[in-house]
UniProtKB/TrEMBL annotation:
The lineage of its organism: Bacteria, Pseudomonadati, Pseudomonadota, Gammaproteobacteria, Alteromonadales. It catalyses: a quinone + succinate = fumarate + a quinol. This is succinate dehydrogenase. Its EC number is 1.3.5.1. Belongs to the FAD-dependent oxidoreductase 2 family. FRD/SDH subfamily. Its cofactor is FAD. Residues 640-668 are annotated as: Disordered. Residues 7-411 form the FAD-dependent oxidoreductase 2 FAD-binding domain. NCBIfam families: PRK08626.1, sdhA_frdA_Gneg. InterPro entries: FAD-dep_OxRdtase_2_FAD-bd, FAD/NAD-bd_sf, FRD_SDH_FAD_BS, Fum_R/Succ_DH_flav-like_C_sf, Fum_Rdtase/Succ_DH_flav-like_C, SdhA/FrdA/AprA, Succ_DH/fumarate_Rdtase_cat_sf, Succ_Dhase_FrdA_Gneg.
Amino acid sequence: MKLIYTDSLVVGAGLAGLRVAIASKERGLDTLVLSLIPAKRSHSAAAQGGMQASLGNAVKGMGDDEDVHFQDTVKGSDWGCDQEVARMFAHCAPKAVRELANWGVPWSRVSAGPREVIVNAQKVTLQEAEEAHGLINARDFGGTKKWRTCYTADGTGHSLLYAMDNKAISMDIPVHERVEALAIIHDGERCHGVIARCLITGELRAYVAKSTTIATGGYGRIYEVSTNAIICEGIGQALALETGVATLGNMEAVQFHPTAIVPVGILTTEGCRGDGGLLRDKDGYRFMPDYEPEKKELASRDVVSRRMTEHMRKGKGVDSPYGPHLWLDITLLGRKHIETNLREVQEICENFLGIDPAKDWIPVRPTQHYSMGGIRTKATGESPQLKGLFSVGEAACWDMHGFNRLGGNSLAETVVGGMIIGKYVADFCENNSLEINTALAEKFMQQVQTEIDTLVDGDGHENPFELKHAMQRIMMDYVGIFRNGPELDKAVAELKALLERSRKLGIKCKKRHANPELVEALRVKRMLKVALTVACGAAARTESRGAHAREDYPQRNDRDWLNRTLASWPDANALEPVLSYEPLDVMKMELPPGYRGYGIDNAIAHPDTAKREQQITQILAELGKDADRYQRQAALMPFELPPSLQANNERLSDTLQRPSANALGEKS
């Protein structure tokens, strides 16, 4: 048995994983990263539009701060998020953006003076302040009150990942590439590392560590069409599930992005609509103002996706060999803007559609995009059930997104969550020793070896590729944008049948080293368990909240369903997960449940909401009018952060309001 020891083990080399690794290495800890692919090829590079942080530099961002960002995030989550985590996130986002600038991210910057933009299909001239010249710029995104999304044209994820990986390289953080984790080593109470397989040689290795951080991204590829990279198959979530101890949270919360191109499902960034792009139907009619008169194309993603689907159901979609679609029109932005700020979109359109987006409309329809659910963690990023197991980024249910994520908050979560959780990971490593009997690692190594032996030498006959395709089709047909009881029940039944069939998997290629068929067979059983947690959670949740839209239960039901779904798989032979629920305490919320601002307000109120609102009014009255916003916030819902991240953020508006030295009679 090959044993490799380290202090901080990170599984996944995207932005979130690398940021945790950097935080560990900064403390002088031995740090090691595992990755399916070279780090710079991670799915983080696909993020286009930007990263939310309340800098308030641009004129349309003036007045923005942590309070506004927090409120947008909570409303966007449809009150499903952990509000303390949302506060931690909103507070640290500006720090993360500025840190990234220090590490070499070439953020798009403000140019002082007039600039022409498109707002609500009209050309508008904005006047940027002289004092803002050269500061980090921001664009508009859906579900936000201010222009807050910092960007580098439409290659933000690419820029961030390259800067982050270069930082990790400069710190000599090793990344073991083309290595796949297949089991978590644990004793039921403490995580001790992972068993991983080299995808080239087939060698099994035991990576033993003080802390193990899962940063493997989302599970979009359990669906047939997804904007996710093909490696985003939910294996990290499955490994936690297979411990029988750790829980997954809110797995039914799956977001569909409004504007993926037809038919391949590649994303065109929300920046297209943020910069002024429009959605049109088969008649060329701009339909979103009919549904959402205030926010129009820039309503929250879940809302826009549902409105688009409703419009196509009315027969207003454009017929195509791949089914109906709608049009994304960015021609009004002009060629210069597209070639400057939407270059990736232009290349995608040219290479995959053969069109010029400066002249032609882009065929789009809603497509699976993001996983709000993941490995359930505490605010520190650690699993409540398995000490030493951490998770971060899209792999985790940290839970700042609740049941719907705002555009720009995912890229932000990778680096902000990595920054915060990385410090807690380092604390854990410094405060805990590595104690493990190598027989425990040998036990899990043998389990994985037996699984491989059975696939290679056994008499199984089920085709892993066929099972995977059947699973993806079921998820697409029955667990999509709109859900209902009969279809969800059908999905659960059919997925259970596939899981049972997966116990008789066989492969034709008997190689034990580089063997894609073996890789697929090892993954598909785990993917089916993830798919079942999504389908079972969706079937059980008889309400509509955020991206979880039940046609048979259209109301958001705070009275009965203001909780977080927890899924575990304690019986290895079971065909479905065990579900339990973690209530969200309204009496601890800074922002009690209310109206999101879309459609009709039909929510069923929680009995504590009115009580908490009265309590908040009383707390603020007792503070008095002289209390600043920090004092008010702390009185309503205190939150903790590592000491180095606690300082308040400074903004351009603070600088402009501060008296100059000459005004105070001081010497310049």
